[in-house]
Design a protein that fits this description.
With about 130 residues, this protein is of the alpha+beta class. The protein has a single domain, classed as 4'-phosphopantetheinyl transferase domain (Ribosomal Protein L22, Chain A, Alpha-Beta Complex). The chain has three helices and five strands. A three-stranded antiparallel beta sheet has the order 1-5-4, with helices on one face. The longest helix is centred in the middle third of the chain and has 22 residues. It is globular and about 35 Å long. InterPro entries: 4-PPantetheinyl_Trfase_dom_sf. This is 4'-phosphopantetheinyl transferase family protein. Keywords: Transferase. One of its GO terms (molecular function) is transferase activity.
């Protein structure tokens, strides 16, 4: 199956908030790929698992809205480039058009930042 290319983000960084506590985890799990569902199942802390699934599904929806496809078809990868395990930061898999991605979460909130691929981005969230 050929995936449609994801369109480029403009030369600005876009930031999207998510109230993780309000997210439906069962629905979120329906858009995650097999590696993401396995990662979800490995969490010992159920809240951290909820946070991961809700945030990753939110990222998939944001990217699929740009491409016009299904969130399940967004070619994401989280393989650590050093050890090969599935716990690294999310990134698009080629041949998808590159987009810089940064994700953070804290105390029931998450932020997703999307930006131009030529300028790596990072976002942080602190919530007392």
């Amino acid at each position: 199956m050929t995936r449609p290319p994801l369109p480029q983000v403009a030369d600005v960084v876009e930031v999207y908030p998510l109230n993780v506590w309000a997210a439906d985890v069962e629905q979120a799990l329906t858009v995650l790929d097999e590696a993401e569902r396995l990662r979800f199942a490995r969490y010992r802390d159920r809240w951290k698992a909820h946070e991961f699934a809700a945030t990753r599904a939110f990222l998939r929806r944001l990217l699929s809205d740009r491409a016009g496809g299904s969130p399940r078809d967004v070619p994401l990868d989280s393989i650590c480039r050093r050890c090969g395990r599935h716990y690294g930061p999310p990134r698009l898999v080629p041949p998808a058009d590159p987009v810089a991605i940064s994700v953070t979460h804290s105390n029931g909130w998450a932020l997703v930042a999307l930006g131009p691929p030529a300028a790596p981005i990072g976002i942080a969230l602190e919530h007392p």
